[in-house]
């Protein structure tokens, strides 16, 4: 093969490889969009108390390793939403989400270690405790309140704007979990317009505070 022919061949292969890579990136981006569109559909079922539809929906999304779907499944199995209460199954889903750094799953898993909290907990008592913490300006309580609105728990209707407001208050006080939630919201376009710069800033703050989930997402972004 001549040098000129070899060069043309290599260039052609390079273009083909680049085209394939771009096509792959586009496909990956579409999968991410579809993934979160499906998650939002599941959350919609949950918020409307359509639990028999929410359960299989979250199960499907959870198979992709989504920690939010796993946390919702933990909640549903713990409290018997759309299924019979199954604490073992709830713990399994909470554990999977907690291993990815999901703070709410970790908190719920910890609470399940208390038999009194594990049976029929409806978050009303927890909400009252949070109110006291919020009055005292406790960033952990502010973050937890934000999480309640983020997931639509404890009698709170899901509201990303309200959740973000609470997370911002806590993040300003250095709460790493709050910063992680904000970073994820800006990265995945959850209740806000996608903003990579804001996502990195909040995730970096969370990572400095030791949040493993933020560290992992930052690696994917870089």
UniProtKB/TrEMBL annotation:
Q: Which domain of life is it from?
A: Bacteria
A Pfam family in this protein?
A: Sel1
Q: Where does the UniProt annotation place the signal sequence?
A: 1-28
Keyword annotations of the record: Signal
Keyword tRNA-binding recorded: no
Q: Does the keyword Ribonucleoprotein apply?
A: no
Q: Which InterPro entries match?
A: Sel1-like, Sel1_AlgK, TPR-like_helical_dom_sf
- Write the protein's name: Sel1 repeat family protein
Its organism's taxonomic lineage begins at: Bacteria, Pseudomonadati, Pseudomonadota, Betaproteobacteria, Burkholderiales
């Amino acid at each position: 093969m001549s040098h000129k022919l070899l060069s043309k061949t290599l260039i052609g292969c390079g273009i083909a490889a680049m085209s394939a890579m771009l096509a792959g990136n586009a496909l990956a981006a579409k999968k991410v969009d579809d993934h979160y569109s499906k998650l939002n559909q599941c959350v919609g079922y949950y918020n409307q108390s359509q639990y028999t539809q929410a359960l299989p929906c979250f199960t499907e999304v959870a198979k992709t390793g989504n920690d939010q779907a796993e946390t919702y499944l933990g909640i549903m199995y713990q409290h018997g939403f759309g299924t019979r209460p199954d604490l073992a199954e709830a713990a399994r889903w909470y554990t999977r989400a907690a291993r990815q750094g999901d703070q709410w799953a970790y908190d719920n898993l910890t609470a399940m270690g208390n038999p009194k909290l594990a049976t029929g907990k409806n978050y009303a008592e927890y909400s009252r405790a949070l109110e006291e913490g919020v009055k005292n300006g406790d960033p952990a309580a502010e973050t937890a309140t934000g999480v309640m609105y983020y997931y639509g728990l404890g009698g709170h209707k899901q509201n990303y704007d309200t959740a973000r407001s609470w997370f911002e208050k806590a993040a300003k006080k250095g709460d790493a979990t709050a910063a992680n939630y904000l970073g994820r919201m800006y990265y995945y376009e959850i209740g806000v317009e996608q903003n990579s710069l804001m996502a990195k800033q909040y995730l970096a703050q969370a990572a400095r505070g030791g949040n493993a989930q933020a560290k992992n997402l930052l690696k994917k972004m870089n």
